[in-house]
Amino acid sequence: MVKVRHSLIAALGILLCAGPLGAQTPTGTVTGRVLDRSSQRPLPGVSVGVEGTDNVTVSGADGRFILTNVPAGLRRITASSIGYAALQQDVTVIAGESANLEFMLETEALALDALIVTGYGTQRRLAITGSVATVNADAANVGVISSANDMIQGRVAGVHMTVNNGEPGAGVQVRIRGGTSISASNEPLYVIDGMPIDNVPTEPRGIGIDSDPPLSRNPLALLNPSDIESITILKDAAATAIYGSRAANGVVLIQTKQGSPGAVSIEYDGYIASSTAANTLDLMTGAEYRQFVQDLVSAGETRLATRLANMGSADTNWEDELLHTGITHSHNVSFAGGSQSTRYRASLNYMDQEGVVISNGFERIQGRLNAAHDAFGGRLRLGLNLSSSHMINDYLPYENTGGFEGGVFTNMVIYDPTRPVMFTDPATGEEVFYEQFCTSTGCTPQRLEQRNPVALAEQVADEGKTTRTLGNVTAAFDLFPGLTAQMNLGADRSNGIRRTYLPRSSPVGAQFEGRARQISRDLSSLTLQTFLTAQRRLFDAHDVELVAGYEYNEYSTNEFGAEGQGFSTDAFGYYNLGGGNTLVKPFSWAEESKLVSFFSRANYSLADKYFLTGVLRYDGSSRFGEGNKWALFPAISASWRLSEESFLQGRWFSDLRLRAGYGLQGNPAVPPYASLITLGPGGNYVFGETPVTGIAPTRNANPDLKWEETSQFNVAVDWGFSDNRFNGTIEYYVKNTSDLLLEVPVPQPALVATRLENIGKVKNQGLEISVNAPVLTGPSLSWQAGLVFAAERNEVVDLGGRTSLQSARASGQGQSDTWTQRILPGHPLGTFFGPVFTRVSTETTAAWVPGQQLFRCATASATCINGETRQPTGADYTVIGDANPDFTVGLNSQLNWGRFDASFLVRGEVGQDVFNNTSLVYATKGAVLQGRNFLKSALDDGVGIDEPAIYSSRWIEDGSFIRLQNLTLGYRFPLPGLNLRQDARAYVSFDNLLLLTDYSGYDPEVHTAAEGLAVRGVDYLNYARPRTITTGIRLAF
Amino acid sequence: MTIKRTTRRHSMDKARITTAAFCGLLLATQGCTDLSETPLSAITPDNFYRTEQEVLGGLASIYNGLQGSLWGYYNFSEITTDELIVPTRGNDWFDGGRWLEMHRQTWTASSPAAEDINGTWNNAYTGIARANVLLGVLPDIAIANKAVVDAEVRTLRAFYYYMLLDMFGGVPIVETTEIAERPRNTRQEVFNFIESELNAVRGALPLQWPSDQHGRMTQGAADAILASLYLNAEVFTGTVTTGGLQRGTARWDDAITVADRIINSGAYSLAADWHDNFSPDNHLSPENILVVKSIAQAGFGWNEHFLYRALHYNSGAGGAWNGFSTLAETYYAFDTLSIQTLPVPGTNRTADILISNDERHKVFLAGQHYHVFTGQPVLDRAGTPLFFTPQIQDETQAAENEGVRIYKWPADPNFTGQWHGNDVAYFRLAEIYLIKAEALNELGQPAAAMQIVNMLRERVFDPDKPATETTQAEVRERIRKERLFELAAEAKRRQDLIRWDRFTLPWAFKAGGDPWRILMPIPQTQLDANPMLEQNPGY
User: Fold this and answer.
1) Which positions in chain B touch A949 (Cβ < 8 Å)?
2) Which 8-state DSSP code applies to residue A14?
3) Taking a C-beta distance cutoff of 8 angstroms, is the pair A31, A57 a contact?
4) Contact B92 A686 (CB under 8 A)
5) Angle of CA points A641, A645, A646, to nearest 5°
6) Does B339 touch chain A (CB under 8 A)?
7) By the 8 A CB rule, do A688 and A668 touch?
């Protein structure tokens, strides 16, 4: 799209000034060289052409080019290459002579003249008055990048990204300038080639193994990262207001690569990667466990005498049995080319990713075709972006939250290490998975509360498949010089299916005699945008641009599922639901919603020194109450380019800009029909001995339901030295979110205990600093470094009079309804609340005996002695932690030395607390009384074996960390036997190579699935994060 | 109808897109900005409750709250008393301390147990709200049995108010569907409302439903609620201050009148075998008056069946929770034939197992535990024979075999998942007799009361063992014991202890409680949602 727009403006220029060219004009030649401005290295493969003609060539390995048959006269020559800002130079061509030109291209991020996509159009970087960051996709596309999100991580200040866990294809949580909403979505709006994406899971949830199933995987996986040209992140209200009601959490604009005029270029890039778990939990081995029980029995613990006698003889490390080296490979082929009037790029990608845990993975095949055509001498410009992807998710049956029993990870921790993985069934002589129902007479499958985790992983089949097609067509037509009408029509359709089978032979399927389920989910969204753009320069120095348009979005979801139980064989798997004796009632639901908008933007600039932007967007959503469906989102912003003022000109700064902006944004993330009373099946009862399906209200009406509104104020300084080779930005912002969408209890009687209401206020403020600097520059050695820093403070200002809301339900046995966080006015979201642990008692008093956990207590009583108690009550609960970091930093660096290149990315977060829910539940020796294993850290904690797991400050840990996220080493080499535009690069890349932290769990960077509102920083049995080594090659012909 | 609707929708889709395209050309039309919503897979009350079948669906959802009451209302009626305790067993059942808090009576409006208190409040009020929706549309629809449905719904609503009255005292009385902040009505007003509603509608209710409608509200059910209301009138119309209860007016005569109305209605008789009232096919029992219905089918039974709360993981009913136990003092309170002292496997201790000639003592599981279906001895999770001991050494660190279990509703051999077919009676004829006996004794007729008591004892003792008390004070104690024996674990204990001024006395694992704890606190969640609510004294 960038390229389309480049040529759009170029074509416009011709229409406005050049006039028709003579057919018989004499010609001359233009020769020259293209260099990288910072490294001074020659740039091969740069497209160089005469504007307004099909006369295009490409620079060679030495950066040189020759353009022949250039009509004589004043000509504008354009040089463009991916990752660099296009550059134009005017040259006078004299018939029969050769003119010489040298192009010094700047990487796009630095060039002030570069056009930045800002939503419904582009703007020159220097004219942007809002907070906008760009990521150069080529620089960020290193290591195993399975999703576009990976390219943002650590590279943009104020963008915080957490991958859910180490699962292949895992979802990500992206926060731009923090979460502002408590219960509505905090995810940004993604816009791919102008199409807003409805970023909801494309696959239904699976069957949980006695607790919640794994999270849905990343819906953005539909994009092939190799197809991405640039990512633009709109952070403040001034930049995002044009997206109005969907913009409160920021906007991520993704542009895919387009073809450029010239000879066909063919590219292959591929890699193979090997991943292993970066960290393990320290569990008791079989020998240690046996010894532990032996010691207890010797010490007089009679309850374990039988267990000791019945212990197994194996020494199984269940974690080792479940982990393996996961191999990922990816292949990407693309070709691109075209003439000045028709350009295309096509690509095909295949990726197969194995998890570091056995029996799960992610596979994707994806194709894309982007094409553009200019007609009527460039007055009409057409574009097509079309991609289709097929994704196969092989899920591991583990649990994200959980209670008493569990899936793979719970059982990995608790399963008796003295038991073997496999067992020879004496009845049949066959090797089967060992389960507790196996005895000397054979194995009789039945429900068990402890399950062989390897068997769970291997036996339970849980698969998701999604086919998703995303496409849009664009048309731009110049009605008059300076006035363009544009249209963008797009559709996004996905079909996802989730199929699960719990076999008869497994302790989780035995109780159903096999349980098979299929659920399909169809999502479709339709977008139509039409808008007019007018551009005019008035009185020499005044530039005005106006955009006005209309947008229509329609969304629909359909889900259908059916389930069979009671199979006589496991042979049908999930394919033949009717093969079971019992069919569970099928279920289905459907919903639709619409979003309709009118938008306009005005840009004004005076002498490239003073800039002013105003935005108005009027959005209407079907999801809100009558009378509150429409809302207006205005924004205004301005910048002043101090460096152009005479008092600063020629001094220190090559660029110095002051920006300020203010605007309103909305968050419409409420489900459809949220304002209406609806009735649905529910509240069953029995009359006689006959079941009657009840019809019960499922929602209270709230005709006042409206938008969650965020106002944001942003002030920034952009600076650059020595031709902007040193540059950076300092920004400060305040975000106030009011009318929070909160599901709150309503006065009773009410049909449902809670209702979605607009209540309360949250405030975010933050400081963002980013610096780019060349450490070294030279023709053969260059070193560029970038630093991003962000500090954010979040505060709940008001909860509509409520004193607090409970959040973050703890997971695990004995933790039912234990809330670990509270949303409290005056405190940030993610505030841990509970008793303060003081120590483990070693003495006997009236209130406790040795080995019991003691907590701080406020009021002296029979159970509160010297400020300590073992029965903390409500009054003893207090704030015990904050899940938000004090600040985050990212440091990226790129080194080029001759043919070698090296880059690294380091990220750090400091000061956040993490609740180690895994330790709370599994670092308890009492597990031995239930025949369960536990974490070795419990061995010497002094706690008695009868002491329950009690949530307290004991389990809140410092989660600060520094991570070497990526290190890549590359080498460029010429391909033998080919010349001209050949380019080959081989690289080796390391992901998650090093993690420095005091945190005792797998990884302090946690995604939280715990139940509750705005939960942050809870770690429970996550899928281990991998450490990955990738080797790859990229060839371009 | 569905097909028509789909077709219309389809063409609407096309129309909308075309309209949108025109809007795009800035030709503003109505369609450009039409944002009206029509739910697809859900319905709105505007187009529902029009046929008898639809009304039945609405009715089922109101009855459904009875099942919900078997968690919150049931647990508070039992765990707060000497009938049940949920000890912490290693990593099991700590749950933030809520269970011990219930037993120790140390809850507050926002402590861990407050969530259960809130659930109890919400469950009753959801039933009331659903009833109000149906009562609101009933006048406008034409169905054959409108008067009966009206009476049935109002009886159910009165029963939900009865639960609120019992737990919280005065609560807002609401008969409309509007969500609004409202002050509390007084306890007397709620009492009067329940009484007048039941008296107004009982005449319209059938004496009995045909067997395919068994379980719906009857005259007997309405009378049973009234009988209990009158039995507890002194409490229910009394005033609670931080000093405790100031009793209201007694209604013993009314209790007897209503009890007699049930006894003489001809609709009920005592089951020959006492256990028939609890068995999986207990819908056949002639004794049960107001029941919570269950069948052994997923989604239609008692999923959180009491037997799961009590039984051990290895008991054989498809998993269980190994939680709720009774106190030794309650276990030993029954008539004793002999005591067997047995060694407790895996320990050096012994346990005293009580052998009783009272059939009703058989609900207790003590000593070696046996698989509920096969009868085979059960092992605990360490592989030791599972032996339930009456004594619990330490309620904060109980072993998995400690505590006698109450197994009154035996597992259904046809159970599905964790769904069993046993109905649970909130009122059965035996209690109506005991209500009458208590009222007679309080009115100075101990002999007549003892006649009733011994009629009930006759069924459960073989050979017969009539009680012999004579004075009013003695008979009062006898009736109190019989209510424990007869109605153990039937959600009566809290109410009974409050009526007898014993709720805040000390018993095992509980120090003496504050006198104002006879009322539960209004949960903080509700105070936040409705600032017009005033908290109960003491909290």
Assistant:
1) 91, 94
2) I
3) no
4) no
5) 165
6) no
7) no
Q: CA-CA distance, A283 to A315, in Å (whole number)?
A: 12
Give the type of residue at A377. Answer: G
pTM for the full predicted model:
0.83
What's phi and psi for A603, nearest 5 deg? -115, 135
The pLDDT assigned to A341 comes to 85
Q: Which residue from A617, A638, A597 is spatially nearest to A241, judged by alpha carbons?
A: A617
Contact A883, A1017 (CB under 8 A): yes
pLDDT value of residue A241: 84
**Helices (H) and strands (E) in chain B — how many of each?**
17, 10
- Containing A564, the helix (H) or strand (E) segment is strand A542-567
Contact A749 B57 (CB under 8 A): no
Contact A928, A934 (CB under 8 A): yes
Cα–Cα nearest to B531, from A460, A284, A981, A800: A800
Contacts of A678 (CB under 8 A, 6+ apart): A697, A698, A699, B39, B42, B43, B44
Q: Which among B60, B381, B530 is the nearest to A694, CB-wise?
A: B60
Q: Report the C-alpha gap between A88 and A347 in whole angstroms.
A: 29
Question: What's A953's DSSP letter?
Answer: G
- Which residue of B44, B118, B210 is in closest CB contact with A677? B44
| Pair of tokens at residue A844 | 């006997």
Is some CB atom of chain B closer than 8 A to the CB atom of A1013?
A: no
Name, in order, each residue with C-beta under 8 angstroms of A858's C-beta and a sequence gap of 6 or more.
A864, A875, A876
φ and ψ at residue A666, rounded to 5 degrees: -120, 170
CB contact under 8 A, B64 and A550: no
User: Are A963 and A908 spatial neighbours (Cβ–Cβ below 8 Å)?
Assistant: yes
Nearest neighbour of A684 by CB, restricted to B60, B209, B417: B60
Q: How many interface pairs between A and B have CB atoms less than 8 angstroms apart? A: 301
Angle at B41 between CA B35 and CA B43, to 5 degrees: 80
Query: Which residues have CB under 8 Å from B451's CB, separation 6+?
Result: none
Nearest to A383 by CA among A529, A249, A572: A529
Strand boundaries in A607-678, DSSP class E:
610-621, 630-641, 653-667
Q: Is A447 within 8 Å of chain B by CB?
A: yes
Contact A812, A949 (CB under 8 A): yes
What would the 3-class secondary structure string for A973-1023 be? Answer: ECCCCCCCCCEEEEEEEEEEEEEEECCCCCCCCCCCCCCCCCCCCEECCCC
CA dihedral A201, A202, A203, A205 (to 10 degrees): 20
Token couple for B394? 């330490």
- Is residue A128 classed exposed, middle or buried when 0-12, 13-18 and 19+ CB atoms within 10 A define those classes? buried
Which regions in chain A score pLDDT beneath 70?
1-25, 38-40, 82-83, 107-113, 138-147, 210-217, 219, 400-404, 650, 976-982
Q: Tell me how far the alpha carbon of residue A703 is from its chain's centroid.
A: 34
Rounded-to-integer distance, Cα A503 and Cα A571, Å: 9
Q: From residue A10, how far is each of A89, A103, A378, A607 by CA, in Å? A: 12, 18, 9, 21
ipTM: 0.88
A386-425: pLDDT as tens digits:
999 999 999 888 876 665 677 899 999 999 999 999 999 8
Strands B288-292 and B424-428: antiparallel
Nearest CA in chain B to A749: B125
Query: pLDDT digits over A801-818, tens only?
Result: 888 888 888 988 888 888
Please, what is the angle between helix B472-487 and helix B446-460, to 10°? Answer: 30
Distance separating alpha carbons of residues B86 and A484, to the nearest angstrom: 74
Q: Phi/psi class of residue A52: alpha, beta or left (left: φ > 0; alpha: ψ in -120 to 50)?
A: left
